[in-house]
Fold Aldolase/citrate lyase family protein.
Amino acid sequence: MTNTRLCRTFQTAPAGVPRDDSAKYLVSGLAAEGWQAPDWLVPDLEDGTAPDLKDEALANVRDLLPEYAPDFAGEIWPRVEWGYDDEATRERGRDQIATLAASVGDHLDGVVVPKVGRLDDVKAAEAAVEAAVQESGREIEMAIIVETARARSDLREIAQFGRDSRLSALVFGPVDYAAELGGRDVGGPEGGPNWPGLYEAMSNEASANDLLAIGGPFDKLFRERAGVTFYNGDEYAAHVEREARVGLDGSWSLHPNQTEQANRIHLPTDAELREAVRKIEAFTEAKDEGTGAVSIDGQMVDEATLKNFENTVETVRAVHDARESQTRECYDADLLERALAVG
Amino acid sequence: MTNTRLCRTFQTAPAGVPRDDSAKYLVSGLAAEGWQAPDWLVPDLEDGTAPDLKDEALANVRDLLPEYAPDFAGEIWPRVEWGYDDEATRERGRDQIATLAASVGDHLDGVVVPKVGRLDDVKAAEAAVEAAVQESGREIEMAIIVETARARSDLREIAQFGRDSRLSALVFGPVDYAAELGGRDVGGPEGGPNWPGLYEAMSNEASANDLLAIGGPFDKLFRERAGVTFYNGDEYAAHVEREARVGLDGSWSLHPNQTEQANRIHLPTDAELREAVRKIEAFTEAKDEGTGAVSIDGQMVDEATLKNFENTVETVRAVHDARESQTRECYDADLLERALAVG
Amino acid sequence: MTNTRLCRTFQTAPAGVPRDDSAKYLVSGLAAEGWQAPDWLVPDLEDGTAPDLKDEALANVRDLLPEYAPDFAGEIWPRVEWGYDDEATRERGRDQIATLAASVGDHLDGVVVPKVGRLDDVKAAEAAVEAAVQESGREIEMAIIVETARARSDLREIAQFGRDSRLSALVFGPVDYAAELGGRDVGGPEGGPNWPGLYEAMSNEASANDLLAIGGPFDKLFRERAGVTFYNGDEYAAHVEREARVGLDGSWSLHPNQTEQANRIHLPTDAELREAVRKIEAFTEAKDEGTGAVSIDGQMVDEATLKNFENTVETVRAVHDARESQTRECYDADLLERALAVG
C-alpha cells in the first residue's frame, strides 16, 4: 500500500439491460452520490450484458460518458470481452477497446480485460490497448481479471510485466475461477472455497510491481430467513474486511449498498486512525530522545511499525483530498487535524 | 473441474501382507462393491508393503489382475517404489514399472510414482513409464505423489510438463511432506499442519494443465474415547469436504469406510444439485428474455455462475453414466431427471 | 526438519540504547541463562538502534563479544543495515559486515541482512559477506529477513541460491512486510493479516534447500485489561505454536519471556515425545514381523509416519546434546532414556 491512488470500490454496472431504459444501471452508477459513489465505475460489456444487447451497451457507454463523466468524481473503467480460449471473443474485445478509445477515450481511465490466460495472452490484451492508444491518441490503462488457472499460474510474471506496460491493476474473479478449479460449496458454515493463497499472492505481486490489487465480487446479495429476504450486509462486510486485511486496495461491488460498505471499510476505522496518530506522535518523541525502538501501549514500535501507521494516515489523507465529506464524517475534527499534521 | 474422468476415490491396498493370504487386502479392494468400490484402486508396492514382501506383492498383482480387473468398474493404478534421493530405489521402480507393463499392462490404467523431487526427477520417472510403454506396447499413464519440498517447489513446472507427457494426475502425500518440512502437531484443536497453500496450488496447476488432482491420506482411522475405539468418520468427512471445497477431483482412502464416505462426498449433495438445476433453469429463462445477469434467490447469476452449476450437473452425469445406482440412491427421480435434461 | 542445528529462538537485542549503559540490552542477551538464553542472539544495529547510536552500537558489539561470546552457549548473529531501495543504506551495511568480520569475526556465526529485495539484491548482500570473509579470513554465514514483496516474489530462487552460498537461513519480517503490502488490522478477533501462504512457502523452500526457517517477531508484548497491563503470554505462545506447526525451526523473540516460551514450544511436548517413542517401538516390532503398514492406536503407521516420529526424537536429542538440563526438566527420566535409545 505505497499506492494512494483511490480504488476502494470497483463497481460493475451492466451497460445494457432489457428494459425500456437499457442504460438504467449505467446511469445509476454514474450519477451515484456520497458513500454510494464508487471510486471506480466499471460499465460492463461482458458477462453483465446479454449477447443481444452488446451493441446497445457499447452505444450507451459512448452516449452517456460525455454527459456524466465530467462530473463523476472517480475513475471510469469499462469491462470489455476477452477469453484466453476463444479468438472470436478476443476479436470483439479488440474492437470494443478501439471503439471506446476512439469515441470516449477522454472520459476513460482504462479498460478491464477479463478471462486472460497465461502471460502471452495478457501481452496480447495489452497490445490491443496499446494499439488503441496509438490510434486514438488517448492515454488508457489496463486492468485484468485474474480468474483462470493459467493467469493464477503466471501471476508473478504477469505482475512483473505490469511494471513497464499499460497493465495497472489486478482484479480477482472468484466465480469463473471456482468454475475452472471445480471449487464447491459443500455446505456447513465455511461455505465455498475462499482462496487465501491467491489473495496473498495478488497482494504481494501487486505491491512488488506498484500495481493496484482489487478483490472479487460477492454475489450473495440478499439472504432469506424465516420468510423475509434482506440485504446480506454482514457477510459482505466480512468479505471486504478480509480483503482489506491482506492489503488489497479495494473491493468489487455489485450494488450501491456494497459500494457504501466497501468505501467505508477501506477507510481506516476511527480506532485504527487514533492508534496510528497516537503512536506516530509518541514514537517521534522517543526518536527525538535517541531511541530506535520503544514500547508504546505494550507494543514494541520501531521504524517498521511506523511505516504501517504512516500508511493509515496516508490513506486518510488521500481520501480527505478526494472526498473530504467522508473523512469529516468518519473522524472527529481533532483527530483528523492531528492525522493531517503528522503526515 | 473440466475433468469428468472419475477419480473420487484413490484407495491404496498393500499388495503383500504377512498373512497366510498375503493378497488379502488387494483382493478386498478388487472385489469391493457398491459405495465401497473405489474409482481408483492402488495396489501398493511401496510403503504399505514391507521390504521382504516386495517380490510377493508384485507377484500378487501379476496373478490377480487378470482375474479381477475385467470385472473391476474403476481404474487400477499400482504404486511402485521411487525416491528422488536414492538411485537404488529408482532402479527398483523402473523394474517394477517395466514388469507391470509387460505382464499386466492390459489391466492397468497407470502407475503411481511416489517421492519425486524436482522437475528433472519427474521427467526421469516419466521416461521409465515411456520406456515400459514402448517395450510392452501397452498404454500406461503416470500419477505422481507430491510429498517432497522439491516437488512442491517445482509444482508449476511439473504440472506444465504434464500437459504433453504421460503424467496425468497429481496426488498429495502429507505424511512424507510433513516429515520433510518438520511440521508438528503441537496439540490443541488445530492439530497438525494442513497446507492450504499446497492444496490451492495443486488444484490450480492441475486445472491449468488438464490433470487430475487427488488429496492426501488421512491416517487417524480410529479414535478412542472413554475406553471405546471407533471409526473416525467425522474427521475424515471434514478432511474430504475440505479437499472437495478447493476443487480436488478425489480423495485418498485407506479403508472401505473412507472409500464410501469419499465416494459420496465427491458427489454433489442433494442441496447442491437442487440449487444448480433450479438456477440453470431460471437463468436460461432470463437469458431468453435478454438478460445477462439476474438475481435468483438473492444471488447475482451470470455466465460465470452458470459454469459452476453446470459443473455440478456434469459431475452427476459422469457418475450416473458409470454408477447409476449411486445417483439413483442420492437424488429423487424428479431432480435427477431435471439434472440430466439441463446438461 | 532434516536440520538439527538449533535455532529455536532468534532474539534481537538493540546494540545501543539511549541510557547511561547503552549496551544494557545487549549484555542482558549475552548473559541470559537457562530457558531465557536464546539459541541465537541477534545484536541489532538496524531498526532497534536509533540513527545517532549506530556507531556506539557497533562499538558495543566489538567491545562485548570478546568478553561474553566464549561463554555464550548459542550462536551470535548481528543484524546489520540494508535496504533494496537505498544504496546509501547498503553501503553502511557493507561497512558493518566488513568491520564485524575483521574485529569480532571469531565470535560471530553470521550476519542478518534485512530488507533484501529480489534475487539480485540478495546476491549483492551475499557478495558483501563473501568479501568480508575473504578480507578477514573468518567464516561467516548470512541470514536474510524476508520482509519485502520483492523477496517474497523471488523466494524460491533466493532459497535455491542458498544451496551453494553463504545464505543459511530465512527469517520472516512481518512488520515491514505488512507495510509494503498494506495489510491492516481491521478489528475483530482475527486481528491483522497472518500470511499463511508465506509461512508455508518459507518452510518448503528452506527444506528444499537445507536452510533454516525462522518466524517473525510478535510485537504486542503486553496487554491491558481493566486497568492492568500484563505480559501477553497466551498470544505469543499461539504465534509460536503456529510457526512450529508448519515446520519452522525457530521463532523470533523480543523479550526474555518470549525466549523462554519459544525455547519450550520448539521442544516436542511430553505428549508428542511419548507418542513418537511408543509408535517407533511398536512399528519396529511390526516391521520385524514383516509388516509394511500397521494400525497403532488407531493411526495407520508406515515408513513415512515413522520419519515424523524420528524427527521428534532427533530434535529432543539435539537439544539434549546442547542443553541437557532442558530435556531433563521436560521429560521424565524413563521417557528420555527410551527416546535416546530409539534414535
Residues 4 and 185 of chain A are 36 Å apart (CA to CA). The first strand of chain A starts at residue 9 and ends at 14. Chain A touches chain B through 49 residues (CB under 8 Å). Chain A has two domains: 9-265, 270-342.
